[in-house]
Specification:
The complex is a heterodimer of chains A (94) and B (571). Chain A has 94 residues and is α+β, with helices and mostly antiparallel strands. Chain A is built from 3 helices and 4 strands. Chain A has helices at 17-27, 50-55, 73-85; strands at residues 2-7, 32-37, 45-46, 63-69. Chain A has a 4-stranded antiparallel beta sheet with strand order 1-4-2-3, covered by helices on one side. Chain A starts with a strand and ends in a 9-residue tail after the last helix. In chain B, the strands form 2 sheets. An 8-stranded mixed beta sheet of chain B has the order 1-8-7-3-4-5-6-2. An 8-stranded parallel barrel of chain B has the order 10-11-12-13-14-15-16-17. In chain B, helix 4 packs antiparallel against helix 5 (123-143) and helix 13 (369-382) packs across helix 14. Chain B is built from 22 helices and 17 strands. The model of chain B has no long low-confidence stretch (mean pLDDT 89). Chain B folds into 3 domains: 2-22 and 150-235, Glucose Oxidase, domain 1, CATH 3.50.30; 36-145, Enzyme I, Chain A, domain 2; 264-568, Phosphoenolpyruvate-binding domains (TIM Barrel, Alpha-Beta Barrel). Classes of the chains: A alpha+beta (94), B alpha/beta (571). Chains A and B meet through helix 1, strand 3 and helix 2 of A and helix 2, helix 3, helix 4 and helix 5 of B.
């Protein structure tokens, strides 16, 4: 099992395009991947589900925990981390 | 035979069968089924059809919308919802555990998430909630077999009748099958108005609550000139309209032959005839139809339907692409003109009771200087080597002009300090669309280089009637003597200060208004590109002396009807 705790610095949080990008990326992997919003103390939800990700309402500056379990768990976490670090391909904004 | 009166928003005549485009929301009530496998199969089929439909729309949107990658993304998110594992699990549970029909199982699950996500205090999530509902309806339409609702199913050339049309509806139509548009609500500024005109499809909006009578397949005539719609026309009526249509086409064709030549009155005064455009595609159409430049470049398209503000570089590129189409001809560019009624979440425009009297146009620019500065910088940079003029929308007072110009000077200073090259000698103007600005035109003329009169908003604000409100259709008429008198005041004030005046509202493209506007002294007529050939023809038919007499007489009339009746005789 691999986990990653990371703060969302993206301007719009994980609501719009970044959310879609996140889910798409998660769906690439075979591992079970979940995400929970630590700031809002939500439950861990399936990271491959767009509606579930939206339901934990990740805003800017929220801390999330991503957990992957399965054969490609390491790659999954690395790859999602990279997505966060590249700010989902968007400028960070002011 | 029955006739309905609406507002003609796109010239031309269409005769053909009704195609009803319905977007009523489908609400499903709980219902059980004895065979879950059948329900599951029905669901799978509907999901598959919806997926294919969305893939087509997505592809079409990417093709149709030159700069529409952001708009296209909406459909991408819709596609994701159709294959969402948790959402589908819940639907299947509803089918297999609770024995619900496919319709209710799908409806219940999507409503659950739409409500859950919509209840959170976030504009973005509210928009996603709307996406879920939108996608839910698409699947439901397939499930309940209401296939007529899908606009792609228009198979024979027809007149599209709808309550109203959204942007996503409009990209979906096969344009070769649409003879005309007719909407129950909507005014001359609605989306269908802009679209139908750009496509040259006759259209009438705001015919009132008669949708039920307009059943599919019944023959109708859409008269985009008079705003009439006729149901079940008799042979004589059809014949009459066919004649009008062919006469119009003939005169349009004839006008098109000379549209690349200047519009000069009989006594030798040249009037500039330019285009209103809202994107790169329009720019090409404008040139094709004989525009001698641009009198109104709407820049909203760069800002709408996206989650973050466009960057300076992005804007520079878009402006350059458009300016390049016009060589040394003028391109009057209007800075961002939006308010609380338009979706641009990142601008954080507060929800307002009355957005048309709220934070919009230049007021918004002054309240969001970072967005405004970026646009000014991009315009000044892109304007190098082009005949760029810039104007500001929704200006009401001299103070606002001074505030705006101090931002302009600040941006100039910034660019100079940074050593970034930009166009120095830009003409700066304002739109005259608030009655206060028309009344103060003499003072405003001392502050700017030119005026451009926006008659759509000027009529709406002068007559205090929303042009999109079907209960007050026809009240906000630019032919009302009050509006014409304001236009005259503005032109006189500008000319006394040696400034020029353009007119970029619907009125400029209406041949009936040509002699009055000439007579009042409008220097530049700016209109939808397709109106250019006929208006040029019309200008050539008058001398300035005659036009002045006509204008004097028209401005002395007491009612809109009198003005229209009088001007009709010169058509």
């Amino acid at each position: 099992m691999e986990t990653l705790e990371i703060t969302v610095i993206n301007k719009v949080g994980l609501h719009a395009r970044p959310a879609a990008a996140f889910v798409k990326k998660a769906q690439v992997f075979k591992s079970q991947i979940s995400i929970e919003n630590l700031t809002k103390k939500t439950e861990a939800v399936n990271a491959k589900s767009f509606v579930k990700l939206l339901s934990i309402a990740v805003d800017r500056d929220n801390l999330v925990r991503i957990t992957a379990e399965g054969e490609d768990e390491l790659q999954a976490i690395e790859s999602l981390k990279e997505l966060f670090n590249n700010n989902f391909g968007e400028p960070v904004g002011e | 035979m029955k006739s309905y009166q609406g507002v003609g928003i796109s010239a031309g005549i269409a005769i053909g069968p009704v195609f009803r485009y319905e977007t009523e929301t489908i609400v499903v009530q709980p219902e059980e089924s004895s065979d879950p496998d059948v329900e599951n199969k029905r669901l799978e089929d509907a999901l598959q059809k919806a997926t294919r439909e969305l893939e087509e729309i997505l592809e079409k949107a990417r093709k149709d919308l030159a700069t529409g990658s952001n708009e296209a993304e909406i459909f991408d998110a819709h596609l994701m919802l159709l294959s969402d594992p948790d959402l589908l699990d819940q639907v299947k549970e509803n089918i297999y555990q609770h024995s619900f029909t496919a319709e209710y199982a799908w409806y219940k699950a999507t409503e659950y998430y739409a409500e859950l996500i919509g209840a959170m205090d976030s504009e973005y999530l509210a928009a996603r909630s709307a996406d879920i509902k939108d996608v839910a309806q698409r699947v439901l339409r397939h499930l309940v077999g209401d296939s007529d609702a899908a606009c792609r199913l228009i198979t024979i050339p027809s007149v599209v009748v709808a309550k109203d049309l959204t942007p996503s509806d409009t990209v979906s139509f096969d344009k070769s099958k649409v003879l005309g548009f007719c909407t129950i609500s909507g005014g001359p500024t609605s989306h269908v108005a802009i679209l139908s005109k750009a496509l040259g499809i006759p259209a009438v909006v705001g015919i009132g609550p008669w949708m039920d009578e307009l059943t599919a397949g019944r023959e109708v005539v859409v008269d985009g000139f008079s705003g009439k719609m006729i149901l079940d026309p008799d042979q004589a009526t059809i014949k009459k309209y066919k004649q009008t249509a062919s006469l119009y086409e003939e005169s349009f064709k004839k006008a098109l032959e000379s549209t690349k030549e200047h519009a000069i009155t009989k006594d030798g005064r040249r009037v500039e005839v330019v285009a209103n455009i809202g994107g790169v595609e329009d720019a090409k159409t404008a040139v094709e139809f004989g525009a001698e430049g641009v009198g109104l470049l709407r820049t909203e398209f760069i800002f709408l339907e996206r989650e973050t503000a466009p960057t300076e570089e992005e804007q520079v590129q878009v402006y350059k692409d458009i300016f390049a189409q016009f060589g040394s001809n003028p391109v009057v560019t209007r800075t961002l003109d939006i308010g609380g009624d338009k979706p641009a979440n990142y601008l954080k425009i507060p929800e307002e009771m009355n957005p048309f009297l709220g934070l919009r146009g230049t007021r918004l620019a002054l309240a969001r200087p970072e967005v405004f500065h970026t646009q000014l910088r991009a315009l000044m940079r892109a304007g190098i080597g082009c005949n760029l003029k810039v104007m500001f929308p929704m200006v009401g007072t001299v103070q606002e002009v001074r505030d705006v110009m101090s931002h302009v000077n600040q941006v100039k200073k910034d660019l100079a300090t940074e050593g970034v090259p930009f166009k120095e000698n830009i003409e700066w103007g304002i739109m005259i669309e608030i009655p206060a600005a028309a009344v103060m035109a003499d003072a405003l003329a001392k502050e700017v280089d030119f005026f451009s009169i926006g008659t759509n908003d000027l009529s709406q604000y002068t007559l205090a009637a929303d042009r999109g409100n079907t209960n007050v259709v026809g009240v906000a008429d630019a032919f009302d003597p009050s509006v014409l008198r304001l236009i005259k005041m503005v032109v006189e004030a500008a000319h006394a200060n040696k400034k020029w005046v353009g007119l970029c509202g619907e009125l400029a493209g209406d041949g009936m208004a040509t002699p009055v506007l000439l007579g009042i002294g409008i220097d530049e007529f700016s209109m939808n590109p397709r109106a250019i050939p006929l208006v040029k023809q019309s200008i050539r038919r008058f001398s300035m002396a005659t036009a002045r007499e006509i204008a004097d007489h028209a401005l002395g009339l007491a009612t809109t009807a009198d003005v229209r009746y009088y001007l009709k005789s010169f058509l």
